[in-house]
Amino acid sequence: MKNKKNRSGRTFAALAVVWMAALLSGCLSGHSGNDSAQGTVAREFTISKNAENKNRTECMPTIDYVDALMLNDIHYYNRQSYDERNRPLSPELIGDEIAEIAYTMSDDACTDFVMRSGDATFVPTGTPIYEMKDYDPDFRVVAEGRIFEVGDNPHAKTVGDLYDIEGKVSKISRVSGNDGSVMREFSKEDTEAFISDLLSSEYVGFDAIYKDNPPEYRISLRIDLNDGTNIRLGYWPKANAITEGAYGTERMLEIVQKEP
After folding, report:
1. 27 and 113 in contact (C-beta within 8 Å)?
2. Contact 149, 162 (CB under 8 A)
3. DSSP 40
4. Strand pairing partners for 241?
5. Which of 22, 28, 220, 239 is the most buried if burial means most Cβ atoms within 10 Å?
6. Which one has a higher pLDDT value, 172 or 4?
7. Phi and psi angles of residue 47, each rounded to the nearest 5 degrees, phi first
């Protein structure tokens, strides 16, 4: 893994909002590896709904998770649409094993649980985690045949640190927020300009964007990559912000707002 400097439609939007809300709630907060960060309570007492813990207030609610995992302080989640998830990932895209799931949160974690490296919401304990070929594992990994893409990386300084897509973009489209259908495809020139500005933008994280700007009408973008996969971005035009964690340039805003 590289040593970096420190820091669809309705379905995708819903997943992103729920995921980010979970980040804000603290259930999926990062962990430095030092158990003292959780106070004097042993980690076991903040996790399992076993006989000793099941009557604790924190262990009684059922938590509604998104499909996520954490590795090296980086939160990843499955951003594939439901139809994409039903298609098996080509073995040619799966690289070397780099880790395995240490703990599965669903039906077991209590609400005061602090997620840390090796944990997953649904992927079973012991499942191998693989690199995805041709991508920095800080951006994408594979588990159970599913692509897990970075949702938050505290080490990223720029969007280029977050998304390993330089030289890998085939096209960008503005898509419907309802069904993901293409509304407008960017020209080659606009695609290159948008990606250039995007990757050099400072990464500030979802929390900063959400805290400093009231929610507004969201423009949905799909960035198609050369291997046939894609990433989705939300753009708030009034804030001139990528909701995933960066402010856009005036050139990016102008490109996004062009009429078909």
Report:
1. yes
2. no
3. T
4. 236, 247
5. 28
6. 172
7. -120, -80
